[in-house]
Amino acid sequence: MALIQLQEMPIHCSELYEQLKEKQYGGIVTFVGTIREWTGDTQTKQICYSAYEEMALKEMHALAAKIEAHGAKVIIVHRLGLLELTDEAVFIGVASPHRSEAFRWCQFLIDELKKTVPIWKKEINTHTVNWGGHRT
């Protein structure tokens, strides 16, 4: 069963990685998204994440179920609230019998999470505030 969480507390990546290790899995792939300072010419100071939590968790579970139906294990943890530069915003981990599947499914999960899960980011930059890449 997948571990799916939305949380305001810091993400402990090493602990999550350890939960992916099991004797039937030969490949573990993780993705950790952090808060970066520069996006092109825009300097970010902080990012604030919010979500429609009930729907976000439902969608995250549905994404994980697609992968786990193939015999893999999935962990998805996303932060909410105000994050500082270098903070971990998201952890995605996939353990599977073979590495190629783990890579493919990890990529699928982060791409689909960004497209379909109702989590929004408010980027607080040096001169503007952006919602999901749009200046306000």
Automatic annotation (TrEMBL):
Coiled coil: none
Entries under Pfam families matching the protein: MoaE (PF02391)
GO biological processes: Mo-molybdopterin cofactor biosynthetic process
SUPFAM superfamilies attached to this UniProt entry: Molybdopterin synthase subunit MoaE
Domain of life, source organism: Bacteria
Transmembrane segments: none
Name of the protein in its database record: Molybdopterin converting factor, large subunit
Organism: Listeria grayi FSL F6-1183
